[in-house]
Amino acid sequence: MIHVIAIITAKPGQREAVLAEFRANIPAVLAEDGCIEYGPAIDAPNSPASFGEDSFVVVEKWASPEALKAHARSPHMLAYGERTKEMVAGRVIHVLNPAA
């Protein structure tokens, strides 16, 4: 299993629009072979550290690196990228192995 933490930064004022597109795509992603977990998260109120009001974090778990690669090439992810490209300022993706 691998873990993915993706930090998505929307252009100012666009986070909710990007999240709406993201949420619409969740059922297709969860139906992919090898998807264990996939969902967005935002800063909790009064968090001691913050990603910021324009950012959200995607928490993912995949059965294998191959499943993650297939996810990245899937038609629904390519379409999501196309729909959101003008709203996204940047993204950082961390692919992690479990340490325990």
Automatic annotation (TrEMBL):
Residue ranges of the TM segments: none
Its organism's taxonomic lineage begins at: Bacteria, Pseudomonadati, Pseudomonadota, Alphaproteobacteria, Acetobacterales
Identify a single GO molecular function assigned to this protein: monooxygenase activity
Q: What is this protein called?
A: Antibiotic biosynthesis monooxygenase
The record's listing under PANTHER family reads:
ABM DOMAIN-CONTAINING PROTEIN, QUINOL MONOOXYGENASE YGIN-RELATED
Q: Which InterPro entries match?
A: ABM_dom (IPR007138), AI-2_Isomerase_LsrG (IPR050744), Dimeric_a/b-barrel (IPR011008)
Q: Give the keywords, sorted.
A: Monooxygenase, Oxidoreductase
Residues of the ABM domain: 2-96
Q: Which GO terms describe its cellular component?
A: cytosol
A Pfam family it matches: ABM
Which Gene3D superfamilies does the protein's record reference? 3.30.70.100
Q: Which organism is it from?
A: Teichococcus aestuarii
